[in-house]
Amino acid sequence: MFNFFCFNFGGCFNKCACSGNLKCPDDYDPTAAKEIEAVNMKYAAGVENQSEGNLDEAILHYEECIKIRKDHIDSHFSLGSCLKEKGYVKAAIIHFEKVIEIDPKHHLAHFNLGILYFKHHRFVISLKHLLKASELDATDLDTWINLALVHNELGDLHSAVHASMKALEINPCSTDVYFNLGSTYHDRDLHEDAIKYYSKAIELDPCHINAMFCTGVAYQEKNETSKALEYYLRACEIDPHFDKAVEAARKLLNGCSQT
Questions:
Q1: Per residue, what are the HEC states of the chain?
Q2: Which of 35, 88, 126, 243 is exposed most, by the fewest CB atoms within 10 A?
C-alpha cells in the first residue's frame, strides 16, 4: 500500500484568536477585581514566554491562571498548545477538551484535538473533531487538508477528494493539496489520477522533490521505466542526497545496462 503524504500540522497548534483578558463584572467586587487583574497579568506573562519559546515558564503562568480561575478558557487552550509542543499529548488533550467543555464551538480546540488524535492513529475520533472544526470555520485551509488525510486513512476516497477540493477552493495553488490528492489516488493504484495531481504540484513548484519522486514510482508501477527514470533523475538533480530517488534511479540504470 503506497503511503506518502504531506501533513499540515505546522504552526496550527498555536493559532489562537483570543486575547485572554478578563473584564470586571458590572457589579464591582474588589476580590473579583483582584483575581481578574492577577489572571490577566499571569496570562500575559505566559503568552510572552510562549512566544519566546520558554515553554516551561509559560506553562507555570497558565497553570497559575487556572488555579485562580479554573474556567479561564484561553489559559486552557494555550496550556494545551504548550503541552502538545513538549510532547505531553494526554495532558494537552485534557486541556483542549476543557476548552470545548467551556465553549463547544471553539474551532481551534476541535482542530487541535483532531490533529492530536490523528497522529496517534485514533482516526474515528479525529474525524469527529475535524468535521466539527470544518462546520465552525469552513474557511480554514489546514482543517480541510487534514480532514482529507483522515478520510483517506479510513478508506473513504470520495470524502477525501471532497475535502481536498474544499481546500482548493480556499487556496487553488496549494501544492500540499495537489500532492496529497496524488498520494490518495496512488494509494489505490490509480496511477493516471495520481500522476495528474503530482504533475500539478510540480507545475506549481518545480522543485517539489516528493512529487517528482512519487511520479517516478507511479510510472514504474505502470511499467513505463523510461518515464520513471526521467523523474527519478530530476529528483536527484534537485537533491543528490535524496537516497530513495538515487537508489531507484541506480536500479533502473543497472537494469537497462543488463538488457
A1: CCCCCCCCCHHHHHCCCCCCCCCCCCCCCHHHHHHHHHHHHHHHHHHHHHHCCCHHHHHHHHHHHHHHCCCCHHHHHHHHHHHHHCCCHHHHHHHHHHHHHHCCCCHHHHHHHHHHHHHCCCHHHHHHHHHHHHHHCCCCHHHHHHHHHHHHHCCCHHHHHHHHHHHHHHCCCCHHHHHHHHHHHHCCCCHHHHHHHHHHHHHHCCCCHHHHHHHHHHHHHCCCHHHHHHHHHHHHHHCCCCHHHHHHHHHHHHHHHCC
A2: 243
147-183 pLDDT tens trace: 999 999 999 999 999 999 999 999 999 999 999 999 9
Q: Which residue has the higher pLDDT, 31 or 115?
A: 115
Amino acid type, 147: L
CA distances in angstroms from 205 to 97, 114, 115, 174, 199, listed in the order given:
38, 29, 26, 10, 10
d(CA 232, CA 246) in angstroms, rounded, equals 7
Q: What is the pTM of this model?
A: 0.85
Q: What percent of the chain has pLDDT over 70?
A: 86
Domain ranges in the chain? 7-143, 173-259
The CATH homologous superfamily of the domain defined by 173-259? Tetratricopeptide repeat domain (1.25.40.10)
CATH code assigned to 7-143: 1.25.40.10
Comparing 7-143 with 173-259, is the CATH topology the same? Answer: yes
Total length of the chain: 259
Neighbours of 79 (CB within 10 A): 28
- Mean pLDDT across the chain: 90
